[in-house]
Amino acid sequence: MCFYNSMSAKATKLAARYGRNLSVVEIAEKILKEQEQYRVNAFSFPECPIVTTEQELQSFRWGLIPFWTKDEKQADEIKRMTLNARADTIFSKPSFREPIRSKRCIVPSTGYFEWRHEGSRKIPYYIYIKDEPIFSMAGIYDSWLDKSTGEVVNTFSIITTEANPLTDYIHNTKHRMPAILSRKDEEKWLDPKLVKSDIEQLLLPFPADQMDAYVIDNYFLKKKADDPTIIDKAS
Q1: Which partner for 223 in 2, 203, 217, 227 could form a disulfide, CB atoms 3.0-4.6 Å apart?
Q2: Cβ pair 107, 7 in contact under 8 A
Q3: Cβ neighbours of 67 (radius 10 Å)
Q4: Residue among 111, 49, 45, 125 at smallest CA distance from 83
Q5: Distance, CA of 10 to CA of 137 (rounded, Å)
Q6: CA-to-CA dists, residue 149 to 7, 99, 143, 145, angstroms
Q7: What pLDDT is attached to residue 15?
């Protein structure tokens, strides 16, 4: 599954990559504090930049909380199970079946992390797209009103699909990878009029020949999230 992302591009580069209506400066000012993270840990439920049709680049919390959630206790339970959404069950799961039809988003990434298991050893890899410094993971989002505080909580989930040959070798336990969108499919993914069959076709494994990966330091999780040596090749 995808629980450790990397978003190490500076805000201006992110804004230039996805900005369509707002100026680069305006977008960069909105999300500057969220950038230059070489490791983003889903289990801390962080604020991350996402791209939506309505308001372009926004900052949402990782771990989707459905709009129908009753209270804070239920929200805390649900978000721990919705960091990822499986493409093969996304249209049937109560937390995901409405967002996948009308609340799709892009989750920008510069790379992500996964482990290969060899007996008792866990070998960490950094995985990325060869010719795309910033690429797009398919996601869904929702907004929940916390009635006890009046706060609107905006959250998202990254969609996963079957692994391609490269990622299957690395993620050799769950055999999953994030659903990655090609540049030509990004605008299509955000189209609210997209029908189920078209959505499903955009959630297929990304071509392995367009990706690459390498082994990184076993202790990368102990480094600060903004430490660029996180993604250095293991010596």
Answers
A1: 227
A2: no
A3: 12
A4: 45
A5: 18
A6: 31, 24, 14, 9
A7: 78
Q: Provide mean pLDDT across the span 14-41.
A: 70
pTM higher than 0.85, yes or no? yes
Under the banding of pLDDT at 50, 70 and 90, the label for residue 180 is: very high
Tokens 């989750």 locate to 107
Residues in the chain: 235
Give CA separation, 95 vs 88, 159, 184, 197, 203, in Å: 14, 13, 28, 20, 18
Rounded Cα distance, 153 and 189, in Å? 23
Furthest CA-CA distance within the chain: 52
Task: Read off the tokens for 157.
Answer: 């989930």
Distances (CA, A) of 117 to 36, 64, 120, 123: 29, 28, 7, 6
- The residues that bridge with 178 in the sheet, in sequence order, are 160
